[in-house]
Amino acid sequence: MSRVWKPFAFAVAALLLATTPGAAQTPQKGGTINSTLWPEPPGIVLGITLNAPTLLPSSKMFEGLMTYDFNLQPIPVLAESWTIAPDGLLYTFKLRQNVKWHDGKPFTAEDVAFTFNEFLPAVHARSKTTFERVKTIAVDPHTVELRLKEPYAPLIRSFDALSAAIVPAHIYKGSDFRANPVNQAPIGTGPFKFKEWRKGEYIHLVRNDAYWQAGKPYLDGIYYRFIPDSASRALALETGQVHLAAQTDIEFVDVARLAKLPNLKVSTGKGWEWNSTISWIEFNHRRKPFDDRRFRQAVMFALDREFMRTNIFFGLAKVATGPVQASSPFYEPDVAKYSLDLAKSAALLDEMGLKPDANGVRARVKLLGLPYGELWNRVSEYVRQALGKVGIQVTLEASDVAGWGQKFANWDYDMVVTFLSMLADPALGVSRTYVTPNIRKGVLFTNTSGYSNPEVDELFAKAAGSTDDAVRKQLYSRVQKIIATDVPVAWTVEIEWPTITSAKLHNVTINGFGPNDSFADAWLEK
Amino acid sequence: MSFWQSFARNRGGVVGLAVLVLVVLLAVTAPFLFPFDPWDTRGAPLQAPGGAFALGSDMLGRDVLAGVFHGARVSLFIGVLSTVIAVAIGVVVGALAGYFGGLVDELAMRFTEFFQTIPSFVLAVLLVAILTPGLASVVIAISVVTWPPVARLARSEFLALRHREFVEAAVLSGVSHVRIIFGEILPNALTPLVIMGSLMVATAILTESALSFLGLGDPNRISWGYMIGAARAVFRQAWWLSVFPGLAIFVTVLAINLVGEGLNDALNPHLRRRTGP
Lengths: 526, 277
Fold this sequence. Notes:
The structure holds two protein chains of two kinds.
Chain A (H helix, E strand, L loop, with lengths): L4 H15 L12 E5 L15 H10 L4 E3 L5 E3 L2 E6 L5 E6 L13 H15 L4 H4 L2 E7 L2 E6 L12 H4 L4 H4 L19 E7 L3 E6 L13 E5 L4 H9 L5 E3 L5 H8 L4 E5 L8 E7 L9 H10 L2 H7 L5 E3 L22 H11 L10 E6 L5 H15 L3 E6 L3 H9 L5 E7 L4 H4 L24 H12 L3 H18 L2 E7 L2 E5 L2 E2 L16 E2 L2
Parallel strand pairs in A: 1-10, 15-16, 15-17
Antiparallel strand pairs in A: 2-3, 4-5, 5-7, 6-7, 8-9, 9-10, 11-19, 12-19, 13-17, 13-18, 14-18, 20-21
Helix pairs in contact in A: 9-11, 15-16
Chain B lengths: L2 H6 L2 H23 L30 H37 L1 H16 L2 H12 L3 H28 L2 H8 L4 H37 L10 H8 L8 H28 L1 H7 L2
């Protein structure tokens, strides 16, 4: 480059950078943001409570050893680096040296060992089974070793704050974890400290000045305000009183309208990779005719899932093709496809011997709706009408949240509308719905359908025990092909949850956790 | 003056009756004018009124007009049936209390007060939630919360008539209690009960709408309250989804109230004399 052109090129580059919004701007310090939070969480210590509204405030106060990027690859947080022995039985973590708890005490390997060995197995419903396989030893104040009896591939995707937030050993050791008074004013290592929880009004977090990432966080504080009505939440966003709303806070039909407003930014799907939610209609395989694969396939062919995507989920979804979410590194697109085909559906039912009676009815079944609001009522209503077209007469069963869970978990249903997070690894989020050992009566989000296929069981078990991602991918591809043909459940859509922020709020979605990230990097434009 | 003549003197009553007949016609003609399932998708979703659909279409492309017609069936059915049940319970309890008096009266009235102390809508919501939402549970819930005023009215009528000569005569001639209650006293106490019952139909329709709005209606039957409840999420995008069923409820309830007033004027002899020429 000649001497004349060089300054010019720099000027052009600078100009380009200046006009690129968001990413290229330098973060500004200061400012307090308001976020919606609904419903009010039952508690804010990650692990002790795991309800969706718990995650948003507590992920700002607690951290894990890692977090995961948009492709669910690990990013170091409290762990600086790690090595995994080739046999997959020993994980060694080097921890950060300059990390302090919110009460000023240093963070050490003891805290990690206590969390993994005692705290998580005792309180964390989901991670319990992972950490029961592991023995954690504090080698020195900043090194821990995790030993396993057999390889467990999803372990490397189990160290995020939502799955394994590190808690202070000096506070919890020897106490009744759930009754510890510190749970009311949690102490973590995160970029924000607990300040106040005014019941029925808000949770207030303030900047942790001693945070280990120098200069961060940028924000002075966050208020999580409890606003019970979705129309009021939308209004608060529009008027700028609230800077952030996410997931189910805003009715899906309203998201498109808000996206057009100049003072708001809406992103969909991105930032929800860890959460990856698939919705489906689950069949009770213990009852006829759901035990017959042809019936389940007939249901798939009778549903216009593209119609559901556009008119029920208002575009905030994509049609689900099978048990694994499309954003997963283990996703297999080449599986049996089910687009709307009423003739095929009727042919399958004919083949089963389910002929239409005088009223055109081939089978009478019940559908237990998901009582999570209007959108889910539309799903039930649509499924009833769509199946009615092929002669499957559906009667809707109404219930409240507790009744839905009760009936679903105890296998007291024909068909049920549900959705579930696929989490960071198929061994954590996917296999639980399909494998025989996870048929556990009375427990929600297990293999409630009663589907059992020895080949599927074996493939899932092998994939969880292998540490070679290429081998795992092959195994998961095979299992997806089998499951997509068996249709143990009728997948409808993958939900692309929206994150709606003020146009002035930056760095909200920087990894696979979206607004459930720590917000160390989030900043507010003046 | 005949009943019809005196009823016709109340203009409001006549208008109300005309509207009510119209609503009944909606309910009766629904299966002929809209011979399809009102839950079915009939065209593009969220169409404004006046296009392919006279009153527009909802988020799943369902015809709002068909919903209003079919919804009339559920609203009227529940309104009338739950009122009949409530009046039946109320009359029996009130009649026993007023006729026998004493301990029976005490027990019956304390029992009635027990229901009156609980806010009726809260009790209705609770009952439907416990019985699981459906047509039968809505009818039961509305009946259970609306009978106490009927019982009180029936009691006071029975108290007043209990010691009249024709009743005493019946007692002396050895007629059974049951026949005296239902054969002698009730026909004479019927007028205020009929008026009260007619007004209760309106309340029952409102209660059903409120329950359906809260998602506690029968999920397999379209009703006006359900239509409004389902539409509230899209109110800013599609006003017609809540406005038309809302109007239907408003007009029907108003009509029933006007008819009730008309009945009151026509059947109440004191009033008839007062307003007479």
